[in-house]
Every structure is written in structure tokens, then in C-alpha cells.
# Entry
Amino acid sequence: FFFKHNNRIEDTVRDTGQVLGPENWQYRMAATGMLAMVLSAGPLFVLPKVTSPRRPCTSCVRACDIGAEDADDIELSLERERRKRGLLNSYEQLKADGPSAFKRPHQVVEYLMLSLQHKGDDGIAEAFRFTSPTAGSGSFVHGMSKNTPRVSWKEGKLINRYVSGTGLGIDAFSRLIRDEYALLLGCDAWRFARHPTSVASATTQEDRGWVLEYLVDVSSGGRSRTVIFRLLYDWGQWCYLVFNVHVLPHACSES
# Structure
């Protein structure tokens, strides 16, 4: 519309040689016509009508309304869905990855306890995987193989930031677990006795963040004992590994 009337004014100027200004009647007629057309067209912008969103009419389900059977069904459904999608739980992920980065120390202890509690010989093999190698047997570049000797849980200790102790193969390590740590194999129940603490032998402030001690209360055959797991961060594996395990004669909760 504006281009159309502007063209008319330009044609009049070109044909008559007149300069159209406010005092010229042709200019006033053109301006009046444009204004009338704009006003008759109504508002240029129309604000949409704002309405509040409608909420779906559903009844609230409280946790207390779900029975034990319904909760079990939900858990089984989630488990089936997880397996259908090929997702791994934390235990399966640790088994698939082995000692590697981004494994928290308490996860390593949990994994070892669950493996020894439920997996028998396979559990001992997994405990062997997450045990620190003896000094000089690991590599910062190549890591360690499945056959790399691991330090004895009974004799492992730290000397100048390195793990020292008798190196054991998988067969000797398995015999050690069955002879000295039979309490852990197929135990009835276990739980962490307290939060992790730094090992007292870690003399410098730098070492105290990398050497940790976990206390686990273990119940088996009607008796309870506290087991101390000591772990050192292995820079070759980027993971905390066990280098010493000690079984106390009683549970900490009893003392």
C-alpha cells in the first residue's frame, strides 16, 4: 500500500515538475488516504491470549500406597528393561572394566566383598585382579597382566610409597584366601563399620590422600569379625588397589 501511493506521488512529480509539500493539495490527499487505510486495517500486532496450562487429571500415588508385591514387580520390570537395553549395573561395570580410572575406593571394597561372598573361585580371581602388584612388577605404560604377581594380603606393607611383600600367583593367592580369609567366602552379611581413614603409616600429608583404610563388619556362621582393608592408589592402573587385609579377633561394634 505504501509503495503504491509513493509511486503515485513520484509519478506526479515526474509528470508536472512540481514539488509536493504539505501546502500542495495532491500531497495532502495522498497522505490522508494512506492514514485512513492504516486506521481501517486495525492494530498491526495482536497479543495472544494467555491462559494457564491445564494439569492432567491424575490421582496422586503415595509411596505408602505401594505394597511390597508392587515394589517387587517394579524392581523386576526395571531389571528386565536394563538387561534388554544392554545396560550394566555397577558390579557388572567393575567386572568388565577391571582396575581402571574413575573407580572409587569404596566401590573396590564393595566389589571384592560381593565377589568373595557370592562368586566362590571366580570371586577369588576378581580379588586377585584388584590386589596391588609387588614393587617393580607393574608398569606405568603397560599396566599389569592377569598373571602379574600380586602382593600377599597378609604380608603387604608400604615402604617409601611402594608396596612390599611376598608376590603370589593366582594359585598361591587362592590358597591364602581359603586359609586366612575363609570368613569372607560365602559370608552371611557385611557392612562398612565406619568411614574410610588415612593409614597411620602414611607419614606425609601428600600420602594420606592415596593410602586409605576401610573397616568392614563381617558375619559368618554365627560369629562377627571386623576386617581391615588397606588400599593404595596405583598410578599405573589409575585405581585404588588392596595391599593388606587384616582380620580383627572381634567386631568393632562389640568393643
